[in-house]
Write a structure and sequence with these properties.
By secondary structure, the protein is an alpha/beta fold. Helix content is about 30%, strand content about 25%. The chain has ten helices and 18 strands. Strands 1, 2, 7, 8, 9, 10, 16 and 17 form an eight-stranded mixed sheet that branches. Strands 15-11-14-13-12-4-5-18 form an eight-stranded mixed sheet, sandwiched between helices. It has a two-stranded antiparallel sheet with strand order 3-6. Helix 6 runs antiparallel to helix 7. It binds flavin-adenine dinucleotide.
Length: about 350
Amino acid sequence: MKEYDVIIVGAGPAGSNFARLLDTQKYRTLIIDGSEDHDKVCGGLLSPDAQDILARYDLCLPKEILASPQLFSVRTIDLSNNLVRHYRRSYMNVDRKGLDSFFKSLIPPTVDKIHGRCKRVAKTDSGYEIELVGGEMLGCKWVVGADGASGNVRMSLFKDKELQKYVAIQQWFPAGETNPYYSCIFDNETSSGCSWIFFKDGMLIFGGAFDRKGCREAFEEQKKKLADGGFVDSNAFSDPVRTEACLVSRPRLSGGIFRGKGGAFLLGEAAGFISPSSFEGISYALFSGEMLADAFNRYSAEKISTIHRYYNRKTQKLKAKVAMRCIKRPFMYNKLLRKLVMKSGLTSIKIKTPKEKE
Ligand SMILES: Cc1cc2nc3c(=O)[nH]c(=O)nc-3n(C[C@H](O)[C@H](O)[C@H](O)COP(=O)(O)OP(=O)(O)OC[C@H]3O[C@@H](n4cnc5c(N)ncnc54)[C@H](O)[C@@H]3O)c2cc1C
């Protein structure tokens, strides 16, 4: 059995950033990722917080991973109250697969990398044992779960800390002539989460986060409402070229965030770090990866409680951000409160689309 000091499960933004920043002179490190081509179900919108983090690292994005069009406002559609407002938001529209490959390319060659799917993690006397699909066994002193919402590390080691989740469904359509707005959609009748429409290199992408029960029906119902209400061209949703689904974490004010225990640490979405209102998670993943690497580099990992204390303290602001978003949620997701906010026009951009003139 191959032995390492640190094994990172998952090479998304969280795992890659941790691997990039970890002092590999100090720790013999392996990163494992199970995806074949890193085609993640994601909007691929890089928030201002994520942009700030990249700027802090003095990192620039290669232009090949930028998608068209670039976005500077969000059209908010409230299907329950039949309201539309535009708000200024400076997201970068990127190709998510390209972004993940970019982050992976920054992992130093001193980190061993293997393609493999972690099936199970178990605690041993000296650390952790990781079983890959196919039977290969790996051993380590410290394990880092950066394996996203369906996190196997969290599920294997901390069964009582299960995360609540939505099912996210996305469909891709040839874009046609539709005005390429980024839209955020609320509809209390079909979802307690939000949905989105955006455009990427000639494709229209419609997606949303739904409660598990009846998710597919709710998804179809929303498409119908958007087309019937004239929010998209009537034939916009007629020929999907791709349908994809995955789980997305749903942290709550009362819990969900768990950063690990003993020699096991959780990063990014596996720790429950994601915005519960907009599902923006890349900035949370990058930041948590950085903070854990900082803890490992600063102290000896043998001092596990010191590492946990440092990591928890440094990611307290992420936890607070999730809590703030949970508090803000009723103003976005409660039909009446949302109507009041949107009707007031507060912070919205005053523009007239044909729909609003009616
Ligand atoms: C539909 C949807 C749209 C989203 N849109 C946006 C957006 O526009 N902007 C934004 O900022 N955030 C968005 N998010 C959230 C964002 O995608 C995540 O929060 C972010 O990717 C989390 O990064 P991570 O590194 O923690 O996990 P992930 O990016 O999920 O990476 C986990 C990695 O672990 C690997 N893995 C998983 N299980 C195993 C296993 N058992 N063995 C080995 N490897 C494994 C996976 O292959 C993956 O590479 C969206 C999420 C969804 C579901």
